[in-house]
Amino acid sequence: MKTTIVRAVFPRRKRVLITSDLHGHADDFQKLLDKVHFSADDILVIVGDLLEKGPQSLKLMRMVMRLKEQYTVYALMGNVDLWRLEFLESEDPQKQRDMLDYSLRAMEWWGGSLLHEMAAELGESLSPDTDITALFPRIRRHFAPEMDFLRAMPTILDTPHYLFVHGGIPHERLSELEGTDPYPLLKFDDFYHTDLSFSKYVVVGHWPAVLYSKTYPDFRPIIDAKRRIIFLDGACGVKREGQINLLMLPDGQSEDFTLVTQEHLPVIEALEDQAPSPEDQAVYIRWSDRWVTVLERGDEMSTVRYHGKTLSVPTQFLGQDDQGDYCRDATDYLLPVRRGERLYLILALQHGCFVKKDSIAGWYRGRYNMITEVDEP
């Protein structure tokens, strides 16, 4: 695969919808399109990573294929999309085995994988004993249209006012990037902490915006007007509390952004007011800097030290790797809550509820009711 660039001019009166990192969540994506009343009058840009980390990769891919046939849709390559394509095309038994092993783990983590869905359609079920040397040729024959779709996904979409790429770009000299290895542009980790800036907005996904938060987990896109970069990824599929972010523009020349999100979490109604904790005192443990010292381990909550600060975290968030004890994304921040507000429930404990409000995660310690109807906060 080589870096490919599509150049387009968006009509002035067409609304532009931009999203990324849908990660096998077809039903949530459809709900989001319904929420914004997507139609033939719109332009839809998906900034990579349709596949994996969710249970509906094949369904989502086919959904986007149909949308492209009927509407103005630009679906860009993501690093996971390229990774899946390269594994499916490979005749190397070790690569095939690696994809099988990943898919078996993905079933435990996310409830499915692209390979599971493909095998099921062929009447196969995956197990450690699956004959992958026989399965992969069948997949390539049966799913040729889907693989052609993946193969044709461009790396970069360039317009007069916006440039879209999944991971990031090192500079704006696109002619120097065209035809090169696309992987560094698709998996440009931690793009925020470079010193790069651009003449027009560069819209990226890949690295969840929440990993750039400082005081508490904030899943909203980051729009850096000074550097002209938009970090869009809402961590859908990557984190249990992740969401799909979509930015709406009145047209392709506007900078009037409207954020619409899609959640998948249950909803509760707060029965008490809660004052927020001071933001400058809140501690936020990010996955990219997750190692802690466990001071006291409890059944429900544990006490840890993180960068010289002590806080309580859910014990189930703790784990170990070759660098020691770690804690997945956690905070001690108390959200501002008013009685009657609806919150997205991440985790309910005696200590309180870990929830989301307005795309920010934190604790609510008051009484609540579960909400059974489907309307959202």
Brief overview:
It contains nine helices and 23 strands.
Q: What is the element layout, followed by pairings?
A:
Blueprint: E1 5-7, E2 15-19, H1 26-35, E3 42-46, H2 57-70, E4 72-75, H3 79-89, H4 93-110, H5 114-121, H6 132-142, H7 144-152, E5 156-158, E6 162-165, H8 174-177, H9 183-186, E7 201-204, E8 222-224, E9 229-231, E10 244-249, E11 258-262, E12 267-270, E13 284-285, E14 293-296, E15 301-306, E16 309-314, E17 318-321, E18 324-327, E19 330-331, E20 342-349, E21 352-357, E22 360-364, E23 368-371
Parallel strand pairs: 1-5, 2-3, 3-4, 6-7, 7-9
Antiparallel strand pairs: 2-10, 5-6, 8-9, 10-11, 12-20, 12-23, 13-19, 14-15, 15-16, 17-18, 20-21, 21-22
Characterization of the model:
By secondary structure, the protein is of the alpha+beta class. It has 2 domains: 5-262, Purple Acid Phosphatase, chain A, domain 2 (4-Layer Sandwich), CATH 3.60.21.10; 267-371, no CATH class. The protein has 9 helices and 23 strands. It has helices at 26-35, 57-70, 79-89, 93-110, 114-121, 132-142, 144-152, 174-177, 183-186, and strands at 5-7, 15-19, 42-46, 72-75, 156-158, 162-165, 201-204, 222-224, 229-231, 244-249, 258-262, 267-270, 284-285, 293-296, 301-306, 309-314, 318-321, 324-327, 330-331, 342-349, 352-357, 360-364, 368-371. The longest helix is centred in the first third of the chain and has 18 residues, at 93-110. The model has no long low-confidence stretch (mean pLDDT 95).
Count the helices. How many? 9
Look at the structure and name the CATH superfamily of the largest domain.
Metallo-dependent phosphatases
- How would you characterize the largest beta sheet? 6 strands, mixed
Structural class: alpha+beta
CATH class of the largest domain: Alpha Beta
The residue ranges in which pLDDT falls below 50 over 5 or more consecutive positions are none
